[in-house]
């Protein structure tokens, strides 16, 4: 039944014995069958056209005991399969699931399908902040191919979208054979995705004020950021949120700095003092040093460097979201005010 | 391997669907790829093979180059349904039903011809290994943004690495194409790359607040 259903939806499969190896429990594989290993261990690919079909295929492959991977744009998965860093006997490719490529706007929220690419987001006028974050991902090639679902699936420590969505209190929409679910991003990241589920979309509030995303790292087109920071302002609810990526294993919210901002900003004008911008950065550094579990120090920067960079980026993003004044006289000051006027 | 002009066959989604389910005569997986306008049948490739690997090793299409296989160098750049992509980050079997265009399929006239000619005229080719990827990327850029300024050009080509030229000659070639094409569009005073070098862009994430 699995084979029939899958074929109808467009399966590409290997020689009969490797397909069996992929979809049957290991114990059921006939003795003497040697799995094909050239080009990795992948022996079957399924190409559903709907979310329903995708879930059916995921569940059947999972029940058979095969190692399954969802394929979005492939910018993370395909090189990893090639290098042997990842192995998947069955690949469920989402390219043809058109319903995942939809993005839409409700009265207060934006919903972005898992198949939406960075290039699609980069020109989205309904969310200028998100669009700017998407524009600084990788290269044209990566932005044209990489998807929102892949960004959530990879969950990189300083993933651009992940950092932005963390600051945006985003929700993740998933579908599995048990139905659809909607959960806050931190819970999604903590619990992980069930092996028979896929991310269908993310949902976030419509922007309620200035949003700034900044990152620092090596050559952008070739390497994801080392440290990332998003600051989002909600003028209506008098709220400022800040997330920092690249310090912990996942982007983290800077709650003390957020509370400080709530009290410090003049919400009628969006003005803060330049001293407050510096203090905001200092609070982010303090919080960054306490993030657990911390990212293991690697060749791309010591922990101290990351803490410092987090503070600099946060202070800068904060200043760019607001009008910064110098105490006691008012008026734009130096670098902090760059871009601070509308 | 068979090669038939894609135009001569039903290459639409339905055709791709059928091809996707068929097993090859040799028992290996079989699917079709539309490469440079020709429908090619792929037999015997592994399902985990990238589009780059299948193009070069199975179909003998050497117009894509293989360097990093990590999506970082752009040597393997193709247009996938009209969008620039690194073919090493795509699984070939998942490209069934899409249009794959390499440098060889860009055409012998128009913009692609101008790009190739200016790469030669401006000395933008040294060892030439990066050139096919660059020509695809530059053609893609100038199709979308004929008047791209210096910063836009650099940003658009950031996914392509050249170890020989230092990029100066490549940028010169792009501006030469713009100048030539601009001259063709009569009365367009803004076509020279030089006049647009200092053009302001707001593509980066460090723009000022826009919500107050
Ligand atoms: C050269 C290069 C530069 C890069 N630069 C950046 C950068 O600047 N910033 C950045 O953030 N990232 C960067 N990346 C990483 C990568 O491009 C992104 O993380 C991208 O969003 C991955 O999306 P994809 O669709 O290509 O994912 P894929 O490779 O298809 O998948 C990635 C993971 O997500 C899973 N997955 C895919 N779709 C779903 C779904 N719908 N539901 C659940 N799981 C799913 C896959 O199983 C896999 O584990 C870069 C990568 C490369 C190769
Ligand atoms: S070989 Fe594909 S980007 Fe380098
Ligand atoms: S000309 Fe040699 S790599 Fe570019």
TrEMBL record, chain A:
Domain of life according to the entry: Bacteria
GO molecular function, one term: FAD binding
Keyword entries, A-Z: FAD, Flavoprotein, Oxidoreductase
FAD-binding PCMH-type domain span: 38-209
Protein name: Aerobic-type carbon monoxide dehydrogenase, middle subunit CoxM/CutM-like protein
Organism: Frankia torreyi
TrEMBL record, chain B:
Gene3D superfamilies: 3.10.20.30, [2Fe-2S]-binding domain
Residue ranges with Low complexity bias: 1-14
Enzyme class, UniProt record, top EC level: oxidoreductase
Enzyme Commission number(s) of this protein: 1.2.7.4
Keyword Metal-binding: yes
Residue ranges of every copy of the 2Fe-2S ferredoxin-type domain listed in the record: 29-106
Source taxon at top rank: Bacteria
InterPro entries from the UniProt entry: 2Fe-2S-bd, 2Fe-2S-bd_dom_sf, 2Fe-2S_ferredoxin-like_sf, 2Fe-2S_ferredoxin-type, 2Fe2S_fd_BS, Beta-grasp_dom_sf, Diverse_Oxidoreductases
Sorted UniProt keywords: 2Fe-2S, Iron, Iron-sulfur, Metal-binding, Oxidoreductase
Sequence ranges of Basic and acidic residues compositional bias: 195-212
Region of interest: Disordered: 1-26, 183-212
Coiled-coil intervals, chain numbering: none
A Pfam cross-reference name: Fer2_2
Molecular function (Gene Ontology), one example: metal ion binding
Record-linked SUPFAM superfamilies: 2Fe-2S ferredoxin-like, CO dehydrogenase ISP C-domain like
Protein name (database record): Aerobic-type carbon monoxide dehydrogenase, small subunit CoxS/CutS-like protein
Species for this entry: Frankia torreyi
């Amino acid at each position: 039944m699995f084979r029939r259903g899958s074929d109808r939806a467009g399966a590409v499969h290997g020689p009969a014995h490797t397909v069996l190896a992929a979809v049957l429990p290991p114990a059921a594989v006939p003795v003497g069958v040697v799995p094909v290993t050239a080009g990795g261990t992948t022996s079957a690919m399924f190409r559903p056209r709907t979310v329903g079909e995708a879930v059916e295929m995921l569940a059947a492959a999972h029940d058979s005991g095969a190692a399954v991977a969802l394929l979005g744009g492939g910018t993370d998965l395909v090189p990893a399969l090639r290098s042997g860093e990842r192995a998947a006997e069955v690949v469920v490719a989402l390219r043809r699931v058109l319903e995942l490529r939809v993005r839409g706007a409700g009265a207060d929220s934006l919903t972005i399908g898992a198949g939406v690419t960075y290039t699609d987001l980069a020109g989205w006028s309904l969310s200028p902040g998100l669009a700017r974050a998407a524009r600084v991902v990788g290269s044209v090639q990566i932005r044209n191919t990489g998807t929102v679902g892949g960004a959530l699936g990879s969950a990189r420590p300083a993933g651009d979208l992940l950092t932005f969505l963390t600051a945006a209190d985003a929700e993740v929409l998933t579908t599995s054979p048990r139905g659809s679910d909607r959960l806050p991003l931190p819970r999604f990241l903590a619990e992980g995705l069930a092996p028979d589920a896929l991310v269908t979309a993310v949902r976030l509030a419509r922007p309620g004020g200035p949003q700034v995303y900044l990152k620092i790292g090596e050559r952008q087109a070739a390497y994801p950021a080392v440290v990332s920071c998003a600051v989002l302002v909600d003028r209506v609810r008098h709220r400022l949120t800040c997330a920092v990526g690249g310090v912990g294993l996942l982007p983290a919210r800077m709650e003390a700095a957020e509370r400080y901002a709530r009290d410090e900003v003049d919400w009628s004008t969006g003005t803060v003092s330049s001293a407050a911008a510096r203090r905001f950065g200092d609070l982010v550094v303090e919080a960054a040093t306490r993030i657990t579990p911390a990212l293991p120090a690697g060749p791309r920067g010591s922990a101290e460097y990351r803490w410092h960079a987090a503070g600099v980026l946060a202070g800068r993003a904060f200043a760019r979201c607001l009008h910064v004044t110098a105490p006691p006289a008012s008026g734009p000051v130096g670098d902090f005010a760059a871009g601070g006027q509308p | 391997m068979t090669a038939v002009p894609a135009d001569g066959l039903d290459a639409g989604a339905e055709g791709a669907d059928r091809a996707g389910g068929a097993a090859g005569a040799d028992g290996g997986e079989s699917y079709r790829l539309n490469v440079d306008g020709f429908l090619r049948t792929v037999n015997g490739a592994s399902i985990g093979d990238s589009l780059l690997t299948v193009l070069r090793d199975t179909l003998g299409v050497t117009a894509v180059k293989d360097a990093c296989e990590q999506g970082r160098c752009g040597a393997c750049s193709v247009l996938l349904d009209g969008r620039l992509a690194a073919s090493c980050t795509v699984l070939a079997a998942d490209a069934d039903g899409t249009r794959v265009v390499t440098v060889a399929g860009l055409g012998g006239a128009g913009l692609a011809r101008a790009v190739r000619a200016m790469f030669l005229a401006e000395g933008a080719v040294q060892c030439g290994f990066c050139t096919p990827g660059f020509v695809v990327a530059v053609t893609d850029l100038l199709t979308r943004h004929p008047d791209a300024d210096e910063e836009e050009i650099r940003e658009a080509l950031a996914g392509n690495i050249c170890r020989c030229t230092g990029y100066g000659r490549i940028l010169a070639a792009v501006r030469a194409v713009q100048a030539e094409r601009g001259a063709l569009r009569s009365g367009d005073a803004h076509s020279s790359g030089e006049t647009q070098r200092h053009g302001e862009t707001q593509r980066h994430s460090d723009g000022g607040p826009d919500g107050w």
